[in-house]
């Protein structure tokens, strides 16, 4: 009485098409999920590294315990031609590698970036006399060791853990030596000798009342700034606090 109309062939084609679309959607979703997971992993790794580096940059601090300057009396009023900084690491800091540290030295006339030169930081205030064209005889102090116009030197003072170029425990104390005469003159102390060295370094350094800024930047990027202030007069002192 009633005729059922069916189209089996058409039904089969519709089912296959739906299956193809479904599989395509699954593949697209899987690819998108893979990309998102990979991106999330990269971002997590970067965030972790950034967090660690930021923590080190904030926590790692170098503290200047004491600073002194060597007075050179080769001119009438005298001047400071070398500086020694006694440093330690602050509480909570990780180990600090001073050989990887840089020092930014800035005065009224000079701006230089210094790197680690070695561990021989002996200051040899050797009086040498030279006669210039006037002729006038003068004397000046010669700084020996690894500190020069582009390098600073380090020497262990206290603590056995870090040695000459590392701050590992809060008990470690290291002396950082800057050759101000060479820095201000732009001349290495080891690159010249005799009359040339005398002319290059005579009177170079910081005069009474002068100031400079020293910025210590360790391997993690943490920075510590110290202001050098030279006394207005030296009297008969060979070493002054700066």
Automatic annotation (TrEMBL):
Places the protein is found: Archaeal flagellum
GO molecular function: structural molecule activity
Domain of life according to the entry: Archaea
Stored Pfam families: Flagellin_arch-type
Keyword annotations: Archaeal flagellum, Cell projection, Cilium, Flagellum, Membrane, Transmembrane, Transmembrane helix
GO biological process, one term: archaeal or bacterial-type flagellum-dependent cell motility
GO cellular component terms, A-Z: archaeal-type flagellum
Residue stretches spanning the membrane: 16-37
Function comment: Flagellin is the subunit protein which polymerizes to form the filaments of archaeal flagella.
Family the UniProt entry places it in: Belongs to the archaeal flagellin family.
Name of protein: Flagellin
Organism of this sequence: Natrinema halophilum
